[in-house]
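Case study B.
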Amino acid sequence: MADVSLGPPDRDRLFGGEDASEADRGQLLLVAGLVMAVSLVTLVVLLNATIYSENVATRGVASADGEALEVRATAVDGTGELIDATNRAGPGGHGNATETVRDGVTDLDAEMSRSYAERGGVTHLELLGVQNGTRITGAITGNATGDPNASTLARDVDRTRGFVLDVDPGNLTDANATSAVDDAFHVDLDNSTGGSRQVYVYNGSDGNVTVAVGENGSVPAARCAVPPDGRGRVAVDLTGERLGDRPCPGIWPTTLVAPDDAYDIALMNASAAGGEVTATARPVSGDTVTADPGFGATPAVYGASIELRYRTAELRFETAVRVAPGEPDA
Amino acid sequence: MNTRNDRAQAHTLEAFAAAILLVAGLTFALQATAVTPLSASTSNQHIENQQRAVANDLLATSAENGDLEAAVLRWNTTNQAFASSPPEVDGPAYTQADGPNGFDAALGGFGEALNRAFADRQIAVNVDLRHYNTSARTERLTTPLIDMGTPSDNAASATRTVALADDANLTAPNHTDSTLGELSDGEFYATETATDPLFTYVEVRIVVWRM
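Model:
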């Protein structure tokens, strides 16, 4: 180890004599130590800056994406609620309904423009077109003018959305999967070429409201069940695939999500249930879906196409969306 | 060369090194602060991102299954407050997730989702409802739905807009027969700004931060 001690005062060692190399060594060691210390500190600072820069650089994209999705959700949800509210109000005709939706989309555009301007974004929402259909409502029992146990809810349907059965658990027939075929209330979805599908709703052996799905009149398979819990009504959302307040996947036939040809919807054994039914359907041709006279059928907007543009300093987002709330997922 | 002349060079180097050390020390000292669970840092940023994502997804699922709209409509027109919000609170909002059920009882499905995602994990949450004053939309008003205090510097937020229809029923107990369109001016916290058949648009804004 180098001798860096000063020892007794010695002019030559302290200030350099004829041969000053021994005095220089201590100073050089000090300088070297300082340089190493500075290097380490700089390394730490640089490393920290690099980590931080990388973190910031990889963060921005995700949040910008989220913003565009939020704008899209606002447009789609707002238009969806507008279409449904228009249909619920019972417009006089398809022309009136379209006009209401057009005015509503213009108003939604004003709302969004004002709202996102506060964040430095520019939005533009435009209605490209609407698809006409029919909104059908009615009580589940006693609708048919002909057979009270087999009433047609909608004929020659291309697409269905918002198909909800609000059933009264107290009125449902007790059944199991086997006896359901003959006894239980069910919705018959009859595709002219693809065969028929049945969705049964009954009180299972455990007292739960049970939904089962069958094909061509075969013994159905139970999909889900929910305890009535004293509720007056339990909602069976066929196209939304929910039972009560829980998801119930698989109750809407996948072949009818985007069918090749028209299908009929009928309520069978309706005396084995009580409650209300609501659906919005789009005909395979024309503007109106025919239903048995016992049901209330009003002109409705089935869906709408909107174009949305959103621009900020860092983002440019443009999309055309078809809005049909409550349509089954593909 | 005389070795004595080298000493000046060494002195110069030493001075430079000392200067750099001082500057580096100052820089380091300025960057270094006491690290607490709430102070900004790279790890904290990740947590903010996660919380923002959770808040966004929670709003999306609640809007999808209708819980969000039900919570927004839980207004008691008589008390001019959200149903079951404690009377000792100044303002119409729920203050905290107190009681064994947190927000469940007060806000239904939306409250249950808030409990599971945030309150049970010691994350505070504010929910504000923002709406415009007139159909000309000149001024934006804020009605607090949940107010758990002032957010920290590291709070994350998410928003979702809910459209309310004229025929939407209030969800507060004993008020479920009233629809928004039937209420007289001033009975509901938001005024009618949208064209019929819609009533208004309400922007739900969630702010979350670690307690």
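The radius of gyration of chain B is 27 Å. The remaining cases will be described in the next quarterly update.
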